[in-house]
């Protein structure tokens, strides 16, 4: 009798199948949460190290901009100046006519971004919506132009613009923008292919033509993609150096990227502290534009990469 009672008690004390499954599930969840925690910590460390590498030049520029002329080339370098020279920023901006360079850069970037949005969106609409024989072959030909490096086409385009007497003006930098670029056309075409064609058909029933559909329906629905294209084009034009260097001769037409070169001097006579101060002021608008429109930029890149 006692042996039977002991066996019965042992049988009752044995974990049930449901209890074992519950314990196993709990251990599995705990192990997955632990793995996710480890992955998150490692990702944070990697991102932190990458941020340090990226921000190191910016910190060096800030440190150098607050030093004297001789302190900027002192070895070993001093990271935190004993007496910060805040007047370097005012001296740097008045050493050259930076207000003229800023005006020229705003004109170049503003007109260029507007032309980029209009031309590329219109061309991409044609490739995404209109039916024509050989449309896809023409689109592949447009994409093939991305494989041509800029130096390859530099000399022929320079000769062409010189024959048109466009040198020493912004025409060589702005007029080609009205004919689109392969990369932006591809991005916007991918986005347009994700817009339902039923909207186009409904607009045609209401009497809209192709241009009205593009202007009234496609463009309002393409704000994320257009924002991404505008931000990338603005940053590229703001920092563009080679184009203005080739086509602009007079200092009154220089952009900010060319104005920074005015601080350079031969035989080590460069005003490094003024150059770093002016460089920080120059990149400040790009930083402000990016952080102010970061959400639209990321959304536009994600959508144009997944749609279609």
Your description of this structure?
The mean pLDDT is 82. With 308 residues, the chain is mostly helical. Helix content is 72%, strand content 0%. α4 packs antiparallel against α11 (223-239). The chain folds into two domains: 2-65; 87-306, MetI-like fold (Orthogonal Bundle). The protein contains 15 helices and no strands.
Keywords:
15 helices, 308 residues, mainly alpha, MetI-like fold, flat, 2 domains, single chain
CATH class of the largest domain equals: Mainly Alpha
Order of helices and strands: HHHHHHHHHHHHHHH
CATH architecture of the largest domain: Orthogonal Bundle
Total E-strand runs: 0
Arithmetic mean of pLDDT: 82
Low-confidence spans: pLDDT under 50, at least 5 residues? Answer: none
**Roughly how many Å is the radius of gyration?**
30 Å
Strand content: under 5%
Number of helices: 15
CATH fold group of the largest domain: MetI-like fold
Summarize the amount of helix as a percent range: over 70%
Please describe the biggest sheet, giving its number of strands, its sense, and whether it closes into a barrel. none
Number of domains: 2
How would you describe the shape? flat
User: What structural category do the secondary elements indicate?
Assistant: mainly alpha
Distance between the termini: 77 Å
CATH superfamily of the largest domain: MetI-like
């Amino acid at each position: 009798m006692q042996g039977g009672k002991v066996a019965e008690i042992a049988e009752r004390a044995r974990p049930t199948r449901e209890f074992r499954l519950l314990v196993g599930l709990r251990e599995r969840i705990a192990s997955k949460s632990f793995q996710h925690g480890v992955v998150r910590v490692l990702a944070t460390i990697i991102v932190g190290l990458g941020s340090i590498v990226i921000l190191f030049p910016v910190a060096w520029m800030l440190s150098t901009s607050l030093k004297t002329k001789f302190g900027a080339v002192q070895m070993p370098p001093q990271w935190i100046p004993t007496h910060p020279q805040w007047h370097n920023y005012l001296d740097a901006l008045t050493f050259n006519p930076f207000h003229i360079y800023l005006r020229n850069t705003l004109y170049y970037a503003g007109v260029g971004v507007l032309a980029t949005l209009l031309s590329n969106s219109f061309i991409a609409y044609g490739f995404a919506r209109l039916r024509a024989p050989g449309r896809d072959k023409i689109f592949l030909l447009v994409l093939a132009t991305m494989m041509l490096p800029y130096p390859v086409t530099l000399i022929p385009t320079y000769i062409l613009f010189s024959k048109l007497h466009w040198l020493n003006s912004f025409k060589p930098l702005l007029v080609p923008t009205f004919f689109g670029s392969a990369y932006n056309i591809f991005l916007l075409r991918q986005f347009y292919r994700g817009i339902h064609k039923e909207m186009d058909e409904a607009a045609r029933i209401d009497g809209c033509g192709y241009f009205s559909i593009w202007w009234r329906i496609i463009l309002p629905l393409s704000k994320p993609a257009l924002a991404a294209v505008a931000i990338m084009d603005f940053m590229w034009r703001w920092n563009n150096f080679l184009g203005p260097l080739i086509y602009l001769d007079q200092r009154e037409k220089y952009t900010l990227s060319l104005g920074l070169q005015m601080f350079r001097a031969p035989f080590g006579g460069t005003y490094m502290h003024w150059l770093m101060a002016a460089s920080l002021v120059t990149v400040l608008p790009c930083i402000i534009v990016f952080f102010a429109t970061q959400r639209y930029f990321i959304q536009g890149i994600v959508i144009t990469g997944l749609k279609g």
